[in-house]
Amino acid sequence: MYDVWKNALEFIEQQISPANYSTWFEDTSILSSENGDIVIGVKNSFHVKQLRSRYVDLITKALENHNIKVNSIDFEIKTSHKPKIRSREITISSELLKNRIKNIKKTKDHTHHQTGLNSKYTLENFVIGSNNDLAVSAAKSIIDAPGTRFNPFFLYGGPGLGKTHLVQAIGNALLNKNPDLKILYTPISDFYSDFIDSVKLGKGKDFNLKFRKLDCLIIDDFQFIVGKEKSQEEFFNIFNDLYQLNKQIIITSDRLPSQIKSVDERLASRLTWAGAFDLQLPKFEDKCAILRAKAEAISAEIEPEAIEYIAENVNTNIRDLEGEFSTILLMSEVRGLTPLELINNGSISVNKTSRLKKVTPKQIVEKVAKYYNLTIKEMCGKSRVTHIKTARQITMFLLSKELSLSTNKIAAEVGVKDHTTVMHGIKKIENDLKLNFTLRDQIEEIKEKIYG
Ligand code: ADP
Ligand code: MG
C-alpha cells in the first residue's frame, strides 16, 4: 500500500498549495484498506476533522487515479510508538541524529520525486484514430518495454494535435506500472531556464545528477531550443548519457529536428534514430469520436447531429474542437436549450463556418497564384516546372481541405483534365506536409491571406 499512497500524495501535492500540502498531508499513511474502505492515519483529531471536511474528494480522486477502488475514506489518529528522546540524549547522539535527518531527507526526496506529469492525461482518454494510430502503437510498445525499440521516441505535429497529451500519457502509464521509475516531464523552456539557474548558482552538478538518474526523460516542445546553444550542448550530453544506459527518451516538437534552425546536425540525426512519428489533423470520423468520448467522460447530453456539426466545422485542431464543444455545452446550460436546438436556431456559429462561406474557389486560386508570383494562367496551365506544379497542387489541396470541393470540380478550377491528377496532387501535398515544415508555414500564410 505504501507505493500507492506515495503516488497518491504526489498527485495531491500537484493539486494544492505547498503550505496546505505540508500542513495536512505530511506524515500521513494508509492504515488499512479492505474492500475499498480506506483508513488513513493522521497526526491528531484536528487533522481528522479538517481532512474529513476538505479533502475526501481529492484523496478519492488521487487513489482512483492509481486504479485503487474506493468505497469510503476515513481518518484515524496514528499512535506513535516511538519513545520520546530526552534532551540529554540529543546532545550525546547528535551524530546519529544528523544521519537520521540525512536518511529522512533521502526518503523524502524519493517520495516526492517531482515527475512534472499531470495525471489527467491518460492513454484511456486519448482517442485513437487514423490521425494518430501509428504514434499510439509506438507509445504502447514503449509502455511495454521502455528504452528499447522506440528510443528515442520523437513525436511531432502542429499545435493542439495531442503531442503533450500522448507523451504525458506514456509517462503516467509507465509510472502506474512501476511507481519506482524516475520519470521527468519538462517543456524544453523549463529545461533551459533550470539549466541557466543552475549555472548561475554554481549548481551545475545537481542539475547534472537530476537528469542523469532518470529512467525516462520527456521533453516537450523541443522546437524552442532555437538559439539556446549552451542548453543544447547540455541536452546533447544528457541525451547521450541516458541513451547509453538504455533509458527512455521522449521528445515532442512542432517540426522535425532537421527543420529547427541551429540544431546541431549530430543531435538532429540522433533524435530521429528510431524514426519520427507524427500526429495529423483528425478526419471527420476522428473528430466525431473525440467529441463523443469527451461527452461521455463528463456525462454531457449532446445530440449526434450537434457532434457532427461541430466536427464538420472545426478544421483547425483538437484544442479548438474541445473549445467549441465546451462553448456549446455552456451555452446550452445557460439558455436552457439543447446543443442542436442552439445550432438550429442560429445561436451558434462556429468561427470556421462563417469564414468558409465567404471564400470562393476563385479566390483561393487567385491567392495561391499571387503568393507564388504566378499568373492564374501560368499556374493553371500545363507547365511541369516544379515550382509551378507545386503551386497547382497546393491549390488543389486547399480547394479540397477548405471548401471540400469534389475532385472533379477541383480539376475544372485548376485546369487539369482528370480527377486522378487531382487526387495525386492532394496526396502529394499531404505527404510533403509531414516532412516539410516550410511548406506548412507557407500554407498557413496563404490561408491567412485567403481569410485575413
Ligand atoms: P499539443 O501538445 O500537440 O499542442 P495537446 O496534447 O495539448 O496538443 O492537445 C490539445 C487538447 O486536445 C488537449 O486537451 C488534449 O487532451 C486533447 N486531445 C488531443 N488529441 C486527443 C485525442 N486523440 N483524444 C482525446 N483528446 C485529445
Ligand atoms: Mg503541447
Question: Notable features of this structure?
Answer:
Rossmann fold, Helicase, Ruva Protein, domain 3, binds magnesium ion, GMP Synthetase, Chain A, domain 3, 452 residues, 9% strand, binds adenosine-5'-diphosphate, alpha/beta, three-stranded mixed sheet, 4 domains
Describe the structure in your own words.
The protein has 452 residues and is an alpha/beta fold. The protein has 4 domains: 76 residues, 2-Layer Sandwich (GMP Synthetase, Chain A, domain 3), CATH 3.30.300.180; 177 residues, P-loop containing nucleotide triphosphate hydrolases (Rossmann fold), CATH 3.40.50; 61 residues, Helicase, Ruva Protein, domain 3, CATH 1.10.8; 91 residues, DnaA protein, C-terminal DNA-binding domain (Chromosomal Replication Initiator Protein Dnaa, Chain: A). 59% of the residues lie in helices and 9% in strands. The strands form 2 sheets. It has a 5-stranded parallel beta sheet with strand order 5-6-7-4-8, with helices on both faces. The protein has a 3-stranded mixed beta sheet with strand order 1-2-3. β1 and β2 form a beta hairpin. The longest helix has 18 residues. The protein is globular. The N and C termini lie far apart (58 Å). Adenosine-5'-diphosphate binds next to α8 and α15.
